[in-house]
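so my prof wants the structure for this chain in the tokens format not the other one, which i didnt know existed until like an hour ago. anyway here's the sequence
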Amino acid sequence: MHHVIEFITHHWFLVFVTLVAFVLLVREEAFSRGGFGSNLTAQMLTQKINRDNALVVDVRSQELFKKGHIVGSLNMPDDQFDKKMKKLKQHKHRPLIVVCDQGSRSSKRVTELKKEGYDAFTLAGGIASWKRADMPLTTTA
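here's what i got, hopefully its the right format
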């Protein structure tokens, strides 16, 4: 035990960097598997729709939405989200799954929705992860 303490005191920076790397690795792994509450994988999203009648809210631009979106999703572009929030009141009894391109904007919106009392989730990695999982998208003319 004495050698361990001596090593840590002499190589504190190396130990610190190793611990930070380990924590970041565990965190990333948990997020990629949907392990931190609000983040869902593509498969988990599909199950949430099928089991809980969840509504997918796509916050990408209308142009991107038209080029390809998850079937049955509601388009509420991020720049208009606050104005269109009233539309969601009729769906307050349903889980909401917010999606964007990569997952960053949707995470922000999920935080806001949770503050308003919604049962909200985000697709980890956004539509990009949906595509990587070979999940279907539909287009709008």
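also thought this was worth mentioning. Residues 40 and 141 are 29 Å apart (CA to CA).
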